[in-house]
Design goal:
301 residues; seven-stranded mixed beta sheet; globular; alpha/beta
Length: 301
């Protein structure tokens, strides 16, 4: 059975705290693992969360600030130490190639794994598999930053009442699904479009077109809310979002499950992020993330 869930490894911004590690998020998607923004300490958090190096297929870095990338060195070396048997692909802003190179070769180790570098320099599709399409969108931050969006291809949902109306049953059900028609009855006549699931990962950014495009129609949106609303000027100055801004983005985009994360150490009450998000009008499922949390991708409606 396929598993689609987010494993939260760390939720702090800029510096870790006693209760929050630097960033790190693993998306499990049908047997693949996509690791987003591995900050310092990610390797240890993986151990605590039961995530193995063999679970990693892609590493996606939004930008090269330390809390989003310093864990790359350890993760890459662990992938090689454990001799992961499949290719691992790394996506990151091309403008940060020198930082990626330094982290990849920070110390001496034996390379045993095919690590493919796939830098990002513009909006668009990064990869397409049978299970998903991975896209990137430019964000607004003091250094170049990209958010990521994963979209499952649309499928079809068979409608039993329509099958019965056309007298289709038994092996003929499978046949019409495979062939697209059974006599004069088309697959469209007995089914409807089942929209593919959507996931987006939005880190350090001000409000911008890229944020809205990434969030649109998401089943699960992971988005930074570094500041509370009373500090909105500080958020804008440093290229970040507030809890209310993130929630309004999710509200307007029709997000089903909103995950707030990347919290400034200046705040001691995480419940205030939820209160401000609700006050902004988001009425879907809402999670204020904490380390080692597991969040399932919502089931199809």
């Amino acid at each position: 059975m396929s598993v689609r869930e987010l494993v939260v490894l760390g939720t702090a911004s800029q510096v870790p705290t006693r209760h929050r590690n630097h960033n790190g998020y693993l998306l499990r998607w049908d047997g693949e693992g996509l690791l987003f923004d591995p900050g310092e300490g990610t390797q240890r958090q993986m151990l605590r969360a039961g995530v193995a190096a063999h679970d990693l297929h892609r590493i996606c870095v939004t930008h090269f600030h330390g809390d989003h990338s310093l864990g790359l060195a350890g993760v890459i070396q662990r992938v090689n130490l454990d001799r992961v048997p499949h290719e691992v692909t790394a996506h990151y802003p091309r403008s940060g190639q020198r930082f990626f190179d330094r982290l990849r070769y920070a110390t001496a180790y034996r390379e045993t794994v095919a690590l493919t570098e796939a830098p990002v320099d513009t909006d668009g599709v990064l990869a397409a598999t049978a299970s998903y399409t991975l896209e990137a969108r430019r964000l607004s931050h003091p250094v170049e930053s990209f958010g990521y969006r994963l979209v499952e291809p649309d499928g079809r949902r068979i409608l039993p009442e329509r099958l019965a109306a056309h007298g289709i049953k038994g092996p003929d059900v499978g046949r019409i699904q495979r062939e697209g028609a059974l006599g004069a009855v088309r697959l469209d006549d007995v089914s409807e479009v089942r929209r593919g699931q959507r996931f987006a990962f939005v880190m350090d950014t001000r409000l911008c077109e890229g944020v809205d495009a990434l969030a649109e129609g998401c089943d699960l949106l992971v988005i930074e809310s570094t500041f509370l609303d009373e500090d909105h000027r500080l958020a804008s100055d440093h290229g970040h979002l507030t809890a209310g801004q993130a929630a309004r983005v999710a509200r307007d985009a029709g997000v089903r499950h909103l995950v707030l994360t990347h919290f400034s150490q200046r705040y001691s009450d995480p419940d205030e992020f939820e209160r401000q998000a609700r006050a902004a009008g988001f009425d879907g499922e809402l999670t204020v993330a904490h380390d080692l949390l597991r969040v399932p991708v919502p089931k199809r409606s």
